[in-house]
Amino acid sequence: SNLLLDYRMDGTSGFDAINSVGQVNGQLIGPPHRVQRTGDELRKNIAELSIRPNIRFTQGEYDSHFETTTHIDTIENEQVSVFATLPEIDMTRQGITQTPIDTIIGYAANTWSYTLDADGNVLDSSWIVPDTYLVNQYEQNLHQVQNYITPYGIGLDLGPDGFTWVYDVTDYLPILHDTVDIRAGNQQELIDLKFAFIKGTPARDIVDFETIWTAQYNHADIANDNVMQAKDVQLHPEATEYRVKTRTTGHRFGGFQNCAEFCPKYHNLSINGGQQFEWLNWKSCGENPVIDQGGTWIYDRAGWCPGEFSDTYNHEITPYVTPGGIASIDYGMEITPAGMEGVYQVAVQLVSYAGANFSLDASVEEIIAPNDWEYRNRVNPICGQPRIVIKNNGTTPLTSLEVTCNVVGGSEFTSTWEGNLEYLESGEITIQLPSMEFWTTPNPANIFEVRVSSPNGGADEYDGNNYGMATFDRPDHYTGDIALFVKANNAGNENSYTIKNIHGDVVLSRNDIASRESYEDLIGLPDGCYCLEFLDSDEDGLEFFANNDGNGRLYIVRPNNGPVLKSFNPNFGSFVRYCFTLEGATNDISIPEAPRTIDVAPNPGSGLFHVTLSGFANIPITVKVSDVTGRTIYSQEMIPSQESFDHFIDLSSESSGLYFLKVAAPDRTTVERLIKK
User: Fold this and answer.
1) What pLDDT score does 39 carry?
2) Beta bridge partners of 575
């Protein structure tokens, strides 16, 4: 009596599912597939009984004969249903909503209809010609615009205004229109996404965009060419230039190299059967602009860092293909005998362009400093030389450029840059200001402006990209004597510092920091602008939870145990850079000896590394190379006789990967990373 719904599903026609106990019938979606069963096929619901059937046998003589009558029967083909939907964006639902607007029921065409004999043999056939054509005009594709890895959030404070990352999506213009569903896989942080549309003429017009591969692949499958094998791609006939974008991040780790997340590997791209591009898929994380994250944020990784965009490599393949033809594209990576654990998240994309719009055009791409953008917080604020990025948007190599800059309300300064940038190549330049007077202005807005002009001494063909501006903060200003206080942790040999003036000259330095010792160095310098650079060679700062180095501290203080004027976060990774202005200090300092350095070339290298040691003259040292497991591969004791000493280390017989070069002196150890191809 409590049964409300009972659908037997035994209707012989129609599209309704009849409810045998009520009036609530169901509507079938599409034509049902009805099946007729013979008696010997009806085996469902068989129950075992305790009674026996009453069977009688009769004996006699009988005559029998067979009569055959042939009947022609017709079995109807199954109907099919096609649903017409309207794709739309519903802000309350994830993904693209498909709203049904019509249902078309019919029979499949472009197939055969058969006449069979009693034994099932084909007697005749006829081709079913379609009378209705349905065209699907909607195509849904998945494209990766970026692979952004959010920072470790435990105890992380990004300030009241949060943190802003900026990424150029110009190459994705062909897919950023019509019905677009934008997804972010992270569900833990609140992320705002904004698009900035810039009016003007690009270096070249975009014709088409295509994703070749976007998926997660096993490390070994990529290396052994089981996936992302050579694929023939039809190049757009209206394009004349082509670029392949690759973005690869390693995840999970195991084995002796901690692959794929924590092992540097060479990846490559072949075009039409020839390898044309190779790059080390490795990203240094100790310089991350989001410091003091609640996890292993300083660890270098395969193509990504927490709180950063993944590295995107742009490969210009135009010289290796024929416009409008077929291009064979093959993605691969180096093979190692072992250590191919983990997976890679890979995106390989093809962008097609029309020809260059300019022969001679230079642009301002970015103002690195001065800038109050939090992404550049590690090199700002400044009181010295501005740093900008320029780009050559013309087909003519860019060899010289006039650069004019000013602070709003102040005087202009013009300098000439000389170098060599090829078509679409960018480069960072430092503007050499003559003095601090450039920054002297009564304007409280703190706006820096820069313009470029006269590329190669000629006229710039497009001035819409010649100007850049940035707001900035003024550096701290100190009056009277100040000192740098250093409390070393258990790895003082990893630390050193320099203080440079506005011209980049070292005026104060220390490279003899001993473990667990404290130093208070007087900064007795003339009035002016200075920048402190405090380095950690192991890229784990003065404090990090996942090592045994203990805790250290770094302050600007008043001398003789005076109050702290500036405190630096000890969990800083690779370096601290801090610029300040000084006035009225006691000009009486003792500058320590020049810093000890290790220069390695080439690095990365294929086996033989040229090591130049500076600052180790007449000091007994031990040069040692170890792998990531701590195994010593090379060790030699020596006493360099010159201030600059050359030494060669051969790792040709070792596996590709990351190694550590350590030069141990009696007072401290200096470390450099080696990467073998």
Assistant:
1) 72
2) 535
Residue 286 sits in the same domain as residue 379: no
Q: How far apart are CA 33 and CA 48, in angstroms?
A: 31
Alpha-carbon distance of 417 to 429, in angstroms, equals: 8
Retrieve residue 253's tokens.
């780790």
Alpha carbons within 13 angstroms on the beta-carbon side of residue 610 total: 4
Distance CA 513, CA 264 (A): 31
The answer to whether residue 503 is domain-embedded is: yes
Closest listed residue to residue 581, CA positions, set 499, 505, 471: 499
Measured in residues, the chain has a length of 677
User: For residue 606, what are the domain limits?
Assistant: 597-676
Q: Which amino acid, 566?
A: K
Q: Judge residue 554's burial from the number of C-beta atoms within 10 Å of its C-beta, 0-12 exposed, 13-18 middle, 19 or more buried.
A: buried
Place of tokens 């208070």: 520
The three-class DSSP label of residue 436 is helix
Number of domains into which the chain is organized: 5
> Which tokens belong to 140?
């849904």
* Whether residues 579 and 448 fall in one domain: no
Using alpha carbons, select from 440, 539, 436 the residue that is nearest to residue 495.
Answer: 539
Q: 496 and 512: one domain?
A: yes
Asked, for residue 37, whether it belongs to a domain, the answer is: no
- The predicted structure's pLDDT at residue 588: 58
Q: What is the rounded end-to-end Cα distance, in angstroms, of the chain?
A: 78
Q: Are residues 540 and 656 in the same domain?
A: no
**Exposed/middle/buried for residue 279 (C-beta within 10 Å: 0-12, 13-18, 19+):** middle
Q: Hunting for tokens 């974008």 — which residue is that?
A: 245
Check which CATH number belongs to the domain holding 665 and give it. Answer: 2.60.40.3080
In a domain, 607, yes or no: yes
Summary mean pLDDT of the chain: 89
Which contacts of 611-614 are long-range, i.e. CB under 8 A and separated by 24 or more positions?
A: 611/646, 611/647, 611/648, 611/649, 611/661, 612/644, 612/645, 612/646, 612/647, 613/640, 613/644, 613/645, 613/646, 613/647, 613/663, 614/643, 614/644, 614/645
**What's the rounded Cα separation, in Å, for the pair 217 and 240?**
32
Same domain, 154 and 270: yes
As to burial, measured by CB atoms within 10 angstroms (0-12 exposed, 13-18 middle, 19+ buried), residue 285 is buried
**Assessment of whether the complete model's pTM goes beyond 0.85:** no
Any domain includes 348: yes
Query: Measured at the alpha carbon of residue 195, what is the angle toward residues 240 and 242, in degrees to the nearest 5?
Result: 15
pLDDT at 589: 53
What does the alpha-carbon distance between residue 216 and residue 249 come to, in Å, rounded to a whole number?
9
Q: What is the CATH number of the domain that holds 443?
A: 2.60.40
In this predicted structure, the answer to whether residue 64 has a pLDDT above a threshold of 90 is no
Dihedral, CA of residue 114, residue 115, residue 121 and residue 124, to nearest 10: -80
Mean pLDDT over residues 393-411, rounded? Answer: 95
